[in-house]
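look at this stuff:

>
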Amino acid sequence: MTDPDPLVSASLPLATRTVEVVAGPARLLVLPTATRDVVSFRGSFRTAADLSTSDDLALGIVSDVLDKGTARRDRHAFADALDGRGARLGFYADSLRLGFAGRALRGDLPDVLALAAEALREPLLDADEIQKAIDRSGAAVRRSRDSTEQQAGGALARRLLPEDHPNYIYSPDEEEARTAALTPEIVREAWRRHVGADGLLLTVVGDADPGAVAATVADGFGGWALHGGAARFAACADPRDPGRTDVPIADRQSLDVRMGHAVDLRRDSPDFLAAYAAVFALGGNFSSHLMQTIRDEQGLTYGISAGLAGIDVMHDGGFGVSVSLSGEALERGIAAVRAEVERFVADGVSDDTLAQVQTTLAGLHVVAMATTGGLAARLLVNAERGFDVGYLDRYPDLVRSLTADDVTAALRRHVRPGDLHTAVAGTFPI
């Protein structure tokens, strides 16, 4: 294995600079950079959750307590092992994967990665710590009842998706009941059944020696058993006639409105980038169509945006518009948003508008990879999608190669103003 010199190769493509190897059960990607002494890392694996059950909720609790001690050391010793090095290590869960991320000095990386492996393979899973995490989760659900943003978003998701879709959001009553039903033993069983080396990916970026990192990963994660399960979830939306859900919340001067519909689109679909660019032109930033019309020209809101959300290579997602409106402007604002979306789809995306979007998207891509942590995150997400590292190099050119005809066609294919559902949360006018 030949290690690239980060000082010499910094201007070369990521695909050239990144070393990819198999280390124990992991697919490991190491990107040496000119950053001195500091290394960032991220990793994830498939949990094979059954989203028709409480697996996802239990695995969220698992991720909350993995840093609360292991079979070898209690929570204080575990924290001291990190704090004494000035290192960071955290765990997170989404619907289909569980992940970890951290940062350490070059010399401490072997010990910190060993701690990550220890926490995943030999967690203490103390009953008191689990119950505290369950209680915190329940408290977060109760707080969410007063969030117009969360309640509008959840209400829209329930209009579009079946319960076992990865993007589904339960009502506060349902989520409180699901959380209250959890027990330490249910959480421990979720760890036993769903935490294993299946699809393990690990990215390391910074002052790192690929050969040494590979040896460290093989040592810490080698022999980690597979759970062997297969995820169960709905990959597609639940089509129904457009309608509206109102969620009353007391003492809110403005109402949050979500309008949207599901889209038959995956992250690896041939026209994903064209559709993404089109919707960005509609509502992706302060120069977008909706900001210029609904906010600047009509003065109906201080903030409005549109985007594609929740789209993965394994399941579809949705198109949505988010806007904050006063009570007196609520119905007028909803009608205006619908009219502007219809007008934008009918008119299409001009060459000038597309050029601005292309510059912005290419710039955002570069900025997102300006730190070792950002690079590690992008490399991991890219690998989770099944894309080669070179996709990150090609992305700006792929965006610049889009034509106005491409983008307009994708817009009209995936954005359907007549299918928009609406959800509103806040204090409604009497």
